[in-house]
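haha ok so turns out i had the wrong file open the whole time. this is the CORRECT one, sorry everyone. sequence first:
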Amino acid sequence: MSGITKQDGPVAVTGASGYIGSRIVEDLLDQGYDVHACVRDASNSNKVDHLIKLDKDNEKNNVSLFEGDLFEKGSYDEAFSGCAAVIHAGATVGFNRETPQEVYDGCFTENEHL
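then structure:
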């Protein structure tokens, strides 16, 4: 990551529980960054246990879990507060979308709340 250093502050990652988001979290940890891992439901162990394990394996306790909803304005305010950067890897696309408009909304419209 260029432009910021780990001393500048934490990096927030939306979609941290997903495959790409969790790889981004892992890479940031390997580089020594503190990470604000943004997930939909921090109490869902199926979605966050691998992030907790990454944090424990790192032994620096520099992952903080935050809940956020891409469709809810302001839900990322706490997670982004004090961050030097935000990496947006979150999306609500998937096989559960019934119409092309829902797929579009999941990719583009939701971003207006970040």
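Strands lie at 11-14, 35-39, 63-67, 85-88.
again sry for the mixup
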